[in-house]
Amino acid sequence: MTDGHAPGAPGGPGNAHRALRDLVMAATVRIHRAGPGYALDEPGTFLGSGFFIAPNWVLTCAHVVRSGEGNEVRVVYERGPGRGTSAVTGEVATVLPDRAGLPARGTWPSPDLALVRLREPVDHDCAYVTERPAAYYEEGVVLYSGWSVVGGELRRLSGTCTVQGTLGGWSDDEQIRLGGDVLPPGVSGGPVVDPVRGEVVGVLKSRTDRGLGGTCTGVEQLRSLPVPAEETAAEHDDPYHAVFHAHDRYHRDRQRHPDTDRSTWADVQNQLGARPGRALSPEERTQLLGRLADLPPPASTRALLGLLESLLGDQAAIPHPAPRGWRDGLGALYESSRQDAALDLVLDYAMRAMSAERPFVTPGTRAAERALWEWVRQTAEGRPGPAYRRRLGQQWIERLQLAPRGPSAAEAEAAHGTTHGAGRAPRLFVLLELEQLGWEPGRCDWHVSVGRPTGEVVRLRDGERTPLEELLAVLAPALTEAFRQCDEPGRPADLQVALPHLLLGLDVDTWQFGPDEVPLGAHRPVVVRCADREQLPEPADAAARAGKALPADEERHEREARWRWIHEHGAQAEVLDCEDGLRVPVPVAESLRGLPHKTVPVLCRYGDHRFEDDPVALVRIVHGGYGVALWRRWRGQSEAVCGEFHRRAGDTVAGAGGADRLPELVHALRAGLREGRPETYWAHGIALFYDDPRRPLPGTGDLLEAP
Predict the structure, then answer these.
(1) Helix, strand, coil share (%) of the chain residues, nearest 5
(2) The pTM is what?
(3) 289: number of CA atoms within 13 Å, CB side?
(4) What distance in Å separates the CA atoms of residue 129 and residue 317, rounded to the nearest whole number?
(5) 427-465 per-position pLDDT tens digit
(6) Is the distance from CB of 435 to CB of 445 less than 8 angstroms?
């Protein structure tokens, strides 16, 4: 597969090709039948191979997943070198072509592709998928990876094949013919990689009955996925855009992430000497695609084709299937431009994407446009010439005068069914208070109360000296009774959990009263409050002590002012403990008090005890005068990519309109996680601190009513 390069084989620059092979195999998975009682290494349940194409999405062959039973499969993957295998249930989200009546076994017609959506979020590596059609590649060598049964055991393997042309014509039936190696049973669904450019170009489809080789399907055939019949109101309404936007953001964020010594796909592509379209380095291409993926997708394929035609004129050669997303349009520039996508053409394309018609906008659309402009500005410095740079600057100034075009964020949310009204009328709520015993830190006293809309509470039940590990079982009857008193049909009451600062990470929202019960946080809004605000310790480090806490009345005034602002004027998220994937200390309370009143603090790495102690971070936020904050419980994956959490948390806070909607929005995210909706996976482990300063907890100045 040459495209201006000499045909390459993995025997070229050895280190780079070995690193490429490692990346390919790390993303390769095997597919098994779903069902209880199956061992992970059982060859009898093995169906075929696949690979992670985006976080929580697997690409494989339709005939592989349809060889099982029902609409579920088990995806077996390796969590990292030497860390063993894990399994997760996946749902067959879509197959191409959609042949519901086709027999489960037998030859599946082209393109024979399937997307599997994981039922729960997991951390894993993703392959890099080309943005250009495989049909343009000439003869060369490709690398493949997959799983097979060898000597009665499941073994992962890789190899090389030669490209021997195509089978079929300019249609969905076209396949790439491969030869030069025996493809063993089970590798169908595995990735096919161009070793010159270091990117996945196809999916293994079949092997020959006699002799060497087989066929593969170009990944561009995913463009033929059905277009939603109704207008899209959010990115995840269209699986094609959901997958490839997540793919491009993953690789952009992975490239930024410094918390690992492992090479990224762009690192390896750079070692291979690949030049995407000759105009960009692999790092520049990765950053550009990631920024384009932060924008809403093109309004339609026709709109994207019009944009390309306006840039290319009679040079435009539209591939088949036609480009559908921003990354596809960039790939089309490579093939259509006589200069092989000269830099000015790429930059012009990015500027057109900034000002294109939007099918919808999100709270982060404006920021995404600014980030893309910064990439254009920095990339253009010193290369296309001063006159060209002045023209780009003028275009950006003109863009600043326009608002993003398309439905508003509120309209988009409402159309998707995630909006719960512009604020909520006060209702009954349940209050759970835990008091940690200083002389017995492993035990708690507790109180369960029913709260009235005015903030007054009626105590229902109390308990003493309950071990932490027994809390759920002991509290279940009292909480069940409280919920019965407060819930309305279709409207479960909020649960407010007042915790001492050392227990603010307690995952009450995941509690289940029975094995088949819905977790509390997926069934009702669950928020956290600070039970010992008046007894918070002074910061232990000198830097924090330099900014002394305000007097109680001043701190209360500051909290109330911040609370009013974010409820009346809207809010903006501020990630405090993470910069481009690197853990940073939370600023001291004095610095936090200097942030704008619209700020909602966000912690990306709460629970990552390799660095600053978590209670210190939360104490600073409380001392800083904040009554609302978001965090996610860190799961200990040192190489987890967190850019999606930053982006989505920012959109959620900004899109809420007022902070009073955050409890319902977080509840909707937890419900989405429970239902296995990938667009919510970024919020795994999310917690909401929502501590109304106007309604103090019992024992802090107000009086309890008689039971």
Answers:
(1) 35, 25, 40
(2) 0.85
(3) 33
(4) 21
(5) 899 999 999 887 888 899 999 999 988 878 999 999 999
(6) yes
